[in-house]
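Most newcomers find our protein records easier to grasp once they have seen one. A record pairs a protein's sequence with a compact description of its fold. An example says more than a description, so a record of this kind follows:
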Amino acid sequence: MESVEDALKYLAKQFESANVARVQWQDEKKQFQAQLHELEAQKKIQDDYAKELVLQVKMLEYALQQERGRYMAIIPAPKDKATNRVERANTSPFNSPRNAGGGGGGGGKEQTVFRKGSSNLSSSSSSASLKHSETKGESEVSRGGG
């Protein structure tokens, strides 16, 4: 009978070791599940943060696009450097659309303002310009015959 008792002891030991292994496996499973939940929560936080950053970047790109649109509406793109210089030299606050309509007694004549010492003065308008510069002292004005 010893062999039956030995067999039962052996089976009891095996059952006990299997039971211990099962309990240990369940503990490890709980630990890994807790770790998995923690990592999933961290991933969700990072994904939310990434989505928020993408939205902020899109918002900033849109704002930059709007500002560029406003800036381009105010300042036209330069066509050519030489043409741009001539246009800047010929523009003045006196050539605004409200003053060019002839409502100020100018008879519809175009006015051009030159800086002192400018080489753009023509010989026909130099006498009128010099008379005006003596009275004003700041800028020279000539009237073009139009």
Notes: The longest strand covers residues 110-114. The chain has two domains: 1-77, 81-94+110-144. Strands lie at 110-114, 140-144. Residues 118-140 have pLDDT under 50 and may be disordered.
